[in-house]
Amino acid sequence: MIDGVEVSMVSFLGFRFINTELYSYILSLSFLVVAIISPFLSGIADYTGSKKKFMQFFCYLGATGCALLFWFDPDHLEISMLFILMASVGFWGSLVFYNAFLPEIAEPDLHDEVSAKGFAYGYVGSSILLIIILIVIMVLDPTDNKESTRYMFLLVAFWWAGFAQVTYRVLPSNVHDRKPDEQYIWKGYHELKKIWKELGGLTNIKKYLRSFFVYSMGVQTVVVMAVLFSKKEIDWGNQGDAGLIISVLIIQFVAVFGAIAFARLSKRIGNIRVIAISLVIWAGICLYAYFITTPTEFYTLAGIVGLVMGGIQALSRSTYSKMLPKTIDHASYFSFYDVVEKLGIVVGTFLFGFIEGITSSMRSSAIALTIFFVLGLLLLLFVKQEGSIAPLKRKSI
To answer: Which residues are CB-contacts of 280 (< 8 A; sequence separation ≥ 6)?
Structure first.
């Protein structure tokens, strides 16, 4: 007990942390790793035409980390947290290259729709897996120790890597027929420098990325910490883990409709206005989270989170893609988008854990996230509607 609040403390590298505080720091580190390496790797991927290979590497890295969580041991926390780091780096690293395929598989006027469908199908697939896990844990394994939970990490890993094969079979390889020479690593660095200079002249994109950086601190932190918040701050009674899984399912299913609904709304009033509306809702979510205590209240919160989560993730990506000049260096351009997002999450998750460490309450961390959404909204007011940027003339290196 700390100041009347029950917390679980763990020892890690000789230091004492609140368990969820440590988890926040590990996630923050994983996003920092992706932010550091992804621009350089994206430059190489663009120069060599190997986006899909890099995407496969990170996918398999993440699936391996997930599978290794089968051996998670609180008594050997250092190695166990390494597995979580691997899984997170693999997942978020693969998305850098996944996002970069959007301009290559869809015309600009279809970016919102295709982006929304991508997120929607992802939510449906993960929901199906969650239902299977719920049945196994709660129905097929009625024991108190829930030994089957460990095997679910293996199931997730095989599901992740297995269904990815469908994607790899369909996605194009080396669309622009790049033929790199032996100096591809050095050329990848030059590709990165070239994109950085070009972004310097794209005022609207820079304004958008500033806003995106700030509100990503809030959005993605809520996404990755919501379950832990509910487990620690909500009185589930005899519902236990079943209530948590149901909450995630609510978020996932509602996110399917949220992604599609927000994409359709953007056709009427524009992406920027829809993102602004969602940021207002996100701020309200954080304020509401501070006060809730019952499962019913959290189910309501989960539904609202799902609605705006699917919408803002899909529209953020498609809005950026429609702002890009005509280019064949999609991985390099999207690496900067992902770096901005990951650095935002680094700050968000670190502050979330830091504030909890000081106050011993995740509620204080949740209320602090409101600031990111308000600032993100204010910065978004300076961004022009997408589609106003003229094509950029490129010079070869």
So the answer is: 373, 377
